[in-house]
Amino acid sequence: MTGSGDFLYDQALALVHQHKVASAALLERRLGVDQSRADALMAQIARETPEVEQLDSGLYLYLPDSLAGELRALRGLADAVLAAIRAGTVDLAELRDRAVSSGLATHEQLERDDTGQRRAA
Question: What is the pTM (predicted TM-score) of this model?
Fold first, then answer.
C-alpha cells in the first residue's frame, strides 16, 4: 500500500504498475468496480503520479519511470521558456542553466553549435 489511505486506489495503482498499462477497463476487470469508479481512479492516478498521463483523447498512457522523469524535466523547461517569452525577458544563460539543472543537457553540449564545434565565447 502506498499510504494514501484509500485501499482501492492503492490496489488500482499497484495493478497499473504491475501490468504497465493505464486502463480503466483493467481496473474494472481486476477490481470489480463499475466504469465510473474505474474512470475516477484512473483520473486520480494520472493527477497524482508521473507515470500515467491522460491524453487529449481521454485515454491514459503508462510511462516507464525513466520516460516519466524526462517528461517532467522537459515540461519544467518548457514552462520556464514560455514564462520568459510571456514576460519578454528571455535570458539565455538562465535557460541554459535550467536545461543543465534539469538533466536535459550538459554545459559542454550547450557550448557547441549545430555542427559540433565549440561556440565562440
Answer: 0.59
